[in-house]
Amino acid sequence: MLDNTKLIHGYPVVDPHTGAASIPKYQTSTFNQQAIFESQEYSYTRFGNPTVAALEEGIAALEGAKHGFAFSSGMAAISTVLMLLESGNHLVVPKEVYGGTCQFVKDILPNYQITSSFVDYSDLEEVEKAITKDTRVLYIETPSNPLLKVADIKSLVQLAKKYDVLTVMDNTFMTPLYQKPLALGVDIVIESATKFLNGHSDVVAGLVALNDDQLEKSLRLHQKAFGAILGVEDAWLVLRGMKTMGIRMEKSCQNAQIIAKFLAGHPKIQNVYYPGLTSHPSYEVHREQATSGGAVLSFDLGNEENVATMTEHLQLPIIAVSLGGVESIVSYPRTMSHACLSEEDRLEQGVTPGLLRLSCGIEDSEDLLKDIEQALSFI
Ligand SMILES: Cc1ncc(COP(=O)(O)O)c(C=O)c1O
User: Fold this and answer.
1) Mean pLDDT computed over every residue of the chain
2) What EC number(s) does the entry state (predicted)?
3) Which of 59, 75, 171, 189 to mutate for ligand 1's pocket (most ligand atoms within 8 Å of CB)?
4) Averaged over 193-206, what is the pLDDT?
């Protein structure tokens, strides 16, 4: 089954008990147990719920995995996975990792004697040098946020295997439709379903998929014990959003490709960052491991005043934190996703005062281009 068919038929989409064309919201915290001395599939919603289980099967199907997990946010998924580490362990993390992950690794994990090294993943030698005898996880995120830097997944997996280190990958930007980390050898894949999987900017959710049975047991225990489970209503909304994910993503990525090309040729734009452009420094690596440039791009207007002028005049995109909605979303990384870094650290990463990130929605590209063009004319 190919992915678009899978989105409609590849996991429990129809209710097995009633035939309802949409899995109902099993809005219950607990389940009546008729035979008190026998275990039954569902007993308490924190341990499992049929609506949430359908979504967990859905992410497993899309990622080509044996096991799926749903969490209350992308960060709940990331933090619960990283809590598989034990005191004394070390992990290697990309310098440009998502801000929330950076904060969790830097500010929370040391409380449990778990240490980390932040490394530039474009330099594999640096990554290898950072691996110590205590390293248990090599954390991957590609393309990065907001500069869309690309890391070579296969080479990183090879490196991790050489040192018997687990690979954990955040695949939020590409989604399981366009990048299949498990097929490339990654051990655990994480998605913030808040973004493209749900796709309607109305839910916060996180998903995880993996193949190893031992890891499944351990993560299931952590999921149950930390309790950061996804609520039934939100699981249902993500299930609903996923059904149209294929056509939504196709349109959003088409828009991104068109807009990136337009901006790359515009005299008022200093730099465009988009892995779907042949001018992207890692275009070939990205093309090897992903089947689309994705729906997110960033561009540099040179300074803060130009950012203020452009965002003031843009009429279609909302100006907001987040990405992956049906509506186009413009973010200012300097004061939004990367606000917790110092200006020095931001500049080192390339998060300049002139940088804007655009997550393309499914509007008509002609209208988006017209809007961008008129906003740029005020600069
Ligand atoms: C790449 C990436 N990973 C993880 C997250 C965290 O997801 P959530 O906001 O659902 O906790 C985000 C949120 O923006 C993100 O962009």
Assistant:
1) 97
2) 4.4.1.13
3) 75
4) 98
**pLDDT surpasses 90 at 150:** yes
C-alpha of residue 191 to centroid of ligand 1, in Å: 8
225 with 265, same domain: the answer is no
pLDDT confidence tier of residue 292, bands split at 50, 70 and 90? very high
**CA-based R_g, the chain, Å:** 21
Tokens standing for 22?
């949409």
Distances (CA, A) of 337 to 58, 145, 155, 163, 318: 29, 9, 28, 33, 16
Centroid of ligand 1 to alpha carbon of 266 (angstroms): 30
Cα separation, 276 vs 282, in Å, equals 10
Q: Does ligand 1 lie within 6 Å of residue 142's CB atom?
A: no
How many domains, in total, are found in the chain? 2
Cβ of 206 less than 6 Å from ligand 1: yes
User: Same domain for 19 and 137?
Assistant: yes
Q: Which domain holds residue 258?
A: 245-376
CATH code for the domain of 20 = 3.40.640.10
